[in-house]
Amino acid sequence: MQGFAGKVAVVTGAGSGIGQALAVELGRRGAKLAISDVDTEGLAVTEAKLKAIGAPVKTDRLNVTEREAFLLYADEVKAHFGKVNQIYNNAGIAFTGDVEVTQFKDIERVMDVDFWGVVNGTKAFLPHLIESGDGHIINVSSLFGIFAVPGQSAYNAAKFAVRGFTESLRQEMIAKKRPVAVTAVHPGGIKTAIARNMTAAEGLDAGEIAQMFDKKLANTTPERAAKIILEAVRKKKARVLVGPDAKVLDVIVRVTGSGYQRLFSSAMAKALPNAH
Q: Are 77 and 131 within 8 A, CB to CB?
């Protein structure tokens, strides 16, 4: 219960996967939840799970790319609960395709959700978090915010951007002595719906790629991921790597520098189908 009981926590992308697991685990630890997603059916499932354990919950459909709506939502959450202590900027989408064949609109869509959604959430809630005197921003990047692979240029760009944004923000909060902790989260392969819901460049079979991800790369359950993340939040860590694959590949990048690109580009090219 330590660190979460009585806290008001906002979770975006709470309709499934890590977001749903985070919301439920926070509820079990005594937090009050404001949950949102564009997936209203999944969101209703999360809400039911929270109500079953007696956690206070405010549920809203929210598109994190809609900035004005996000700003209004932050004020509504503050008005509803009287304070806001934590925001988990978790909502995200996936896309696969080489730069050569990917359309501008596909890159923009990934950036809008995965990067600007994090910026929107951070900016919307930061004043309320500062006001609480005990704020915490948790921004979900990815292993792909540390380690780049072929076919994931849009996703890599967004997740590297989240990492840079979050690390800079943390330093600002420290330098200005703001009462807001900041944590960047880098999950590896998690058994969630993000791969199954991914879109892909023309000529690629998104379903085939998702199936490969689920069978070969998804090593960690959302429930385990949520517990790892919350332990890092409790300790106010700057960064948390989620899953054994994230830890191993982080070490490889640290040891080899840019050399990892040559080591992995051929292997990844063989593993991932290419659009033609």
A: no
- Read off the tokens for 151: 């076919």
Name every residue whose Cβ is closer than 8 Å to that of residue 42 and which is 6 or more positions away in sequence. 15, 16, 20
- Count of other CB atoms within 10 angstroms of residue 52: 10
Cβ-contact 194, 94 below 8 angstroms: yes
Specify the pTM.
0.89
- pLDDT tens string 211-268: 544 444 557 899 999 999 999 999 999 999 999 989 998 998 999 898 888 877 766 6
Q: Which domains does the chain have, with CATH numbers?
A: 8-271 (3.40.50.720)
Please tell me which residue in 73, 88, 155, 260 is annotated as part of the active site. 155
User: Distance of CA 231 to CAs 2, 22, 57, 88, Å?
Assistant: 10, 11, 22, 14
CB burial of 161-196 (b: ≥16 within 10 Å; e: otherwise) equals bbbebbeebbeebeeeeeebbbbbbbbbbbbbbbbe
Instruction: Give which of 186, 188, 138 is closest to 4, Cα–Cα.
Output: 138
Task: Note if 155 is an active site residue.
Answer: yes
* Nearest partner of 218 among 198, 185, 246, 176, judged by Cα: 246
